[in-house]
Amino acid sequence: MSSPGTEKPVIEAVSQTFDSLMREDRVFPPPPEFAAKAYIGSAEAYERMYAESIADPNAFWAKAAGELEWFEPWTSVLEGSGADATWFAGGKLNLSHNCVDRHARGARKDKVALLWEGELCGEDGRPKEIRKLTYGQLHEEVQRFANVLKAQGVKKGDRVAIYMGLGPELAIALLSCARIGAIHSVIFGGFAAHAISDRVNDSDCQIILTQDISYRRGGEVKLKQIVDEAMAKCPNVRRVIVYQRAPHAASGISMTPGRDVWWHQEMAKVSGFCPAEPMDSEDPLYILYTSGTTGKPKGLVHTTGGYSVQTYLTSKYIFDLKEEDVYWCTADIGWVTGHSYVVYGPLQNGATVLMYEGAPNYPANDRFWQIVDDHKVSIFYTAPTAIRAFIKWGDDWVKKHDLSSLRLLGTVGEPINPEAWMWYHREIGKERCPIVDTWWQTETGSILIAPIPGAVSTKPGSATKPFFGVAPQIVTKEGEPVPAGQGGLLVISKPWPSIARTIWGDHERYVQTYFSEVKGHDGKGIYFTGDGARRDADGCFWLMGRVDDVINVSGHRLGTMEIESALVAHGKVAEAAVVGRPDELKGQAIAAFVTLEEGNEPTEELRQELRKWVAKEIGALARPDDLRFTQMLPKTRSGKIMRRLLRELATTGEVKGDTTTLEDFGVLAKLRENDE
Ligand code: ATP
Ligand code: MG
C-alpha cells in the first residue's frame, strides 16, 4: 500500500482528468447601476480588451506600465519565456515612489492613505484607537524610516525580516525597504519562534523589525519575546528594531544591549528626506513564503517592475477602485494578499486603505460590520473561511449594522462554496454588490482569474474569467486540452508580469515545481498551478481543489470542492473537508469532517441524513463513507483547510507532515480523541 498523502508525487495524481458532479447554474449579471460607473462596463468591452491583451501582450502591458512613473524607460517589455521570462528589462523605477511620492506630491497629499483601527475597546465596547495617515504624512514616515534602515547599515539587496502586528508601521516597514532596495521578508505575526528562525536563516536576514506586543482577541501577543526566543538560533542577526505598540512599557519585554534598538528613538535621530533608489525592473523586491497548505512552505522571490505593474492594474480594474472609495482587505500583511492588496496595489492607485489590527469576533461577533458601518467602507475583500464563520455565528450580528456604504465584495484564498457565496451576496451585499471571487497564488503575485465587476456576470463558486493578458488552460498531464465541463489541471500558458522569478536559494526547485510537471507540444514546461479546475461552456473557470487532494473512487476522480460544497449546502453544516482514505474495494473511500452551525447537535441521525443528502445533491458516488463531526478543522494561519493532515489522520491515525503553519495544534489532538 502506498504511504499516506503528504509526500505523494504530483505526477501520479495529475495523469488523468477528473469528473465533475456539481450542478450550479445561477448567474448574476453586473448590476446596471454599478456597470454604469465602472471602468469597464460591458461584457463586450471586457471581451475586446481581453482579446487585444492576448493578441499583443507587449502593447497591453506597456500601456499599463505607462500609468506608473519610471526613472528610466524599459528597452523591451517581455524577454524569454517560462522560468526565464523577464519584464520591462532596462527600466528603472521604485515601488515605494509609485505608492507614496507620486500621490504626496500632487492632489492626494491630504487624502487619507492609511486608516487604521486598533483592536482595543473602551468600557462602552467602542474602539479606543483610530489613526489616519495622509499620503503626505506617509511620505514623511517612510522616508524617515528608510533613513533609519540606512543608518543601521542596510544596503540595497540586503534581506530584512519583518515580524509585526497589523498596523501602519508594518506598511511603513515594507515601503521603507522597497524605497532603499532592501529585500523584505515578512513573517506572519502569529508564527512561533521556530518558524521565524527557519525563515530568517533561509534567506540570511541580518536585521529584524518587530514590536513589543500586539493585541489579538483581547489578549497580548508578545512578539518581541518570541523574536528573542528565535534569535537563539539566528547567529547572523545583528540588529532588532522594536516598535513600541503598547501605550506603556509592556511587561516582560527586554532589550538586548548592542542588538536591540527602539523604533521611535532611531526615528528621532534621522532626517525626513530620503529619495527613492532607482531599482532595476528585475531587482528583487521581496521574499515571501507560501501558506504551507500542501507541504513545506516555499520562499518565493518577487521582482520590482512586473510586480508593480500587475498589482497596480488588477487593483484598479478588479476592485474598480475610485477616488472616493474606502477599501478594506481583511488579509494580514503576512500573506501575499496583504502584500499585493493591502499595501502595493491599492496604494499605487492612491486609494484610502483601511487596516484593522485584531480579530473579527472581538469584542463581539459583529466587529467587522461595526467597522464597515463606522468608516463607510465601500469595498470589502475577505476569505471564505471568514465568511463561513460569519454564517456560523448567525445573521443577527450583521443585521445590527448599516452596510449601505458597500458597493463591491471580494473573496480569496480557497474555492468559495456556492451557498457561502449566496449568503455573502444576500446578507452582506444585499443583492446589490457584485462579488469578485479572485483566484491567484503567492507565486502569481497578483490576481489571475476573477470577474471584472462591471462587465462579467458572476456565478456562485466560479472565479469566472481571466484577467487581461492571462491565458489559463485546463489540460491533462501531457498538456492536451480537456473539453469544457471536464476537470483537469489548471496551467497558465503565457507569461505574465508579476510571476515570482525563483525560490530563494533554490532555482532548481522552482523549475521542478512549476515548469516541469506539464509540458507543451514544444516540450517546454508550462506553468502548473497545482490546482484542478474545469471550464464551463461560457468560458468560466471553476476551481475544484488541489490536485494533490483528488479522491479516486471506483475509477472516478473527484475534486474535494464539490463534495464539500454539497455538505455546506445543508442548512445545519457550517464547514466541511473531505479526503480520501485507502479502501480495498473502491480504491479510495471518502472521509468527511464536518462542523455544524451553532445550535445543532452532532447526532447519529444527522450523520446519516448528511450522507444521504450528498448522494441526493450530487450523486451516490460522492456519498461519504465516514462522516465525523468536529468543533474545528485544521487550518493554516491564513485560514485554509489543511486536508493533507486530515488525510494522514484518516489513513494512519497519525500526523507526520509539516505542521509549521498550522493555526491551532489543539485541533489535531481533539480529532484524535474523537477517533477513540
Ligand atoms: P502551499 O503552496 O505552501 O501549499 P498555498 O498554496 O495554500 O500553500 P497560497 O499561495 O497562499 O499558498 O495559496 C494559493 C492557493 O490558494 C491556490 O493555489 C488555490 O489552491 C487557493 N486559492 C486561492 N484563491 C482561490 C480562489 N479564489 N478559488 C479557489 N482557490 C483559491
Ligand atoms: Mg501553493
Automatic annotation (TrEMBL):
Keywords, ordered alphabetically: Acetylation, ATP-binding, Ligase, Magnesium, Metal-binding, Nucleotide-binding
Modified residues (N6-acetyllysine): K640
One of the record's GO cellular component terms: cytosol
Residues involved in ATP binding: G413, E414, P415, D437, T438, W439, W440, Q441, T442, D531, R546, R557
Enzyme category, top tier: ligase
Catalytic activity: acetate + ATP + CoA = acetyl-CoA + AMP + diphosphate
Name of this chain's protein: Acetyl-coenzyme A synthetase
Lineage: Bacteria, Pseudomonadati, Acidobacteriota, Terriglobia, Terriglobales
